[in-house]
From TrEMBL:
Subcellular localization: Cell membrane
Record-annotated membrane-spanning stretches: 21-41, 257-284, 305-338, 358-378, 399-419, 431-451, 463-496, 716-737, 758-787, 799-824
Protein name: FtsX-like permease family protein
InterPro entries assigned to the protein according to its UniProt record, in alphabetical order: ABC3_permease_C (IPR003838), Membrane_comp_ABC_pdt (IPR038766)
Keyword Cell membrane among record annotations: yes
Keyword Thylakoid among record annotations: no
GO CC annotation, single: plasma membrane
Protein topology in the membrane: Multi-pass membrane protein
Occurrences of domain ABC3 transporter permease C-terminal (ranges): 264-376, 720-827
Amino acid sequence: MSIPTAARLARRDLRGGLRGFRIFLACVILGVAAIAAVGTVRESIATGLERKGATLLGGDAEIEFTYRFANEAERDWMDGAANRVSEIVDFRSMAVAPDGERGLTQVKAVDRAYPLLGQVTLAPAMPLAQAFAGRDGLPGAVMHPLLSGKLDLQPGDTFRLGNAEFVLSAEIMFEPDNATSGFGLGPRTIVRSADLEGAGLLGPGTLYSTRYRLDFPAGADLAALQTQAEQTFPDSGLRWTDARNGTPGVAEFVDRLGAFLVLVGLSGLAVGGVGISAALRAYLATKTETIATLRTLGADRRTIFLTYFFQVALLALVGIVCGLALGVGVPVLLSPIIEARLPVPAAFGAYPAPMAEAALYSALTVLIFALWPLARAQDVRAAALFRDALGQARRLPRWPYLVTTLALLTALIGAAMIFSGNTILTLSTAGGIFGALILLVLAAAAVVTLARRAKPLARGRPALAWALAAIGGPGTTAAPVMLSLGLGLSVLAAVGQIDQNLRGAIARDLPDRAPSYFFVDIQKDQMPAFMKRLNTDPAVSRIESAPMLRGVISRINDRPATEVAPGHWVVEGDRGISYADARPDRTKIVAGEWWGKGYDGPPQISFAEEEAQEMGLSIGDMITVNILGRDLTAELTSLREVDFSTAGMGFVIVMNAAALEGAPHTFISTIYAEQEAERDILRDISDAMPNVTAISVRDAIDRVSGLLAGLASATAWGAAATLLTGFLVLIGAAAADQAARTHEAAILKTLGASRARILASLALRAAILGAVAGIVALAAGIAGGWAVSHFVMDTGFEIAWASALSIVAGGAVISLLAGLAFAWRPIQARPAQVLRSRE
């Protein structure tokens, strides 16, 4: 027979409705919708950032310098190339209220040209120039409500930054270029740069950065201007950003989070694939007589395969279209709510790229999970007009279908690698899903075997005996139930373990190992008084101090550092650099030799061991570091053990004292003290040294914890979608199993069983399968959580038992609910009608 014949047969067969394909369609729609929704939000944010790149950046381009202002030549180039230039100084300081209350703030000192693009929205409403005018001879400032609320300041009140007094004119409601500021440890305060004179906050060696926003003539070639700037000032350490990608950090974060959530969505597709396979098997089982009749009439195996393949393809297409409409339509309809919660602009709409990605994933998933049931269906013979003929077919399809399945699976993983841009994460996710599926298949087989062997233990307990017989008997749905529920619970369990361990690591380490404060910007001549105050305080248990500069690793062995170690965090941006003469206490050299006290020869560098290994560095390498606009090349002579997880002091780079001590710099100090004494220490230091900034480690960790909580929440929503898909598959399995359970209940009623015992049997069966699926998911989740904590987060791992036990209980409850939802018909059916229909 021909393809047109198969298409005609498929069309006629579909006239009977979609009764057997409801769960199939639901799984396809939900899987497509989840991935399309994530992709749509990601693409909407990316488009919004691209369209408003100049506004978010504050200009057509930005040139940033680390801890220095642009020199005369650099400023002349900027003034000549741009129509307007705005200078911004960004640094941290302590805002001090009249009552002595203090708060860390991220200060933005601006000139009269700021902002080049956009407007700062204030409350009460006023122009920024009016806010800076101040009152009673004091300059004005504006402040984020979080900080003014913490300090109990109202517009009109005064506060202090360093040695300078300011009047709070208004609160910041909207800052147009805030997305480029990155992660800050304190809320924003904006002041005029000229008003900081005499504040003592921007002395030599102070930790600050300067940003020059440039407004170019219309049609300016930004790429050519970037090249010109970098070639004109090759050793200046400038960093160029322009409106082509005005918020690279935000864009990269959105891409990575979106890619991770898509991979979580693929877990949902895998669960949906199990549902697709189970629904298709159940549907084809009802078509056994039809298939056998077609074979009797001369239909060959290819025609049978194509007939039902066309049905699956058509319904999959319908499901994909509906899923795309749902996945794109919901974010667009909810765009006002989503945009209000986003810190960056988004342009919501229907974008082809995420839609194509979701459609490709779903089409491949449908093919992978539908191929085997279709291949088994074509093996039904003309004489096989008997019950369960399809179930008696070969367990594995013929080798061409196995090869095709492997090719489709490879294509799916390859597509995920390309779209996510993270090969390791994609392969790890695929391996985790595959491992969990294998574990669940083995667990389902073990449950069936144990149920058969445990029948003697159920003597005298009819409900339990019937439940075990249903699990271990012919036609059992243990496999699809455990696969669908277990995989969804595995994802949730892994997310829960990772989240709890990140929070637990913070809680465990903070009391014993983390310092109370980081004090930065301590001038050299302030160190004696600083140490005197702390050394005489019995509540202070430990003090660590070191000189600190900031620098950018520009070259390694006379090659650009970004080529030697592409993408490594050490070469992306500036890093803290210290110097020492004699080897500091607690410094452990693991390779090479320390230069020794009094060394004044050629510059030498000691590097953190782990980072050096990641970057491929070895003893003898020559490393060039740009510090304050000057290149300094030094030989790598030793590697140190540095533990950044303690939140204590640690430098990737330490150089010999003679190489750096003549450069302008300040000191940094970490203080370990009793919590009750922290407030007094902060007050005394900031009163005596207003220029010194104190960073509370507890507050910083709270902000990081909040960010992690947001990431965990987003991931948990993705895992919840996977679990919802699993619940749909459970419903499909229960629905497909309803006829068998109805027949079983009819026989039990005939033998005298009560409805209560039959219901108890059905409930026990569902609860046992759900509990076992939960236990397997717990094992998979703990393994996944350990792997991520150990290899990705590089933290310790402890099993979060509260989260773990809730997963097991949740599995039992969800399975129980799905089972009970379809228990009413079996226990209500009349035995005579059921048994007569099966004669």
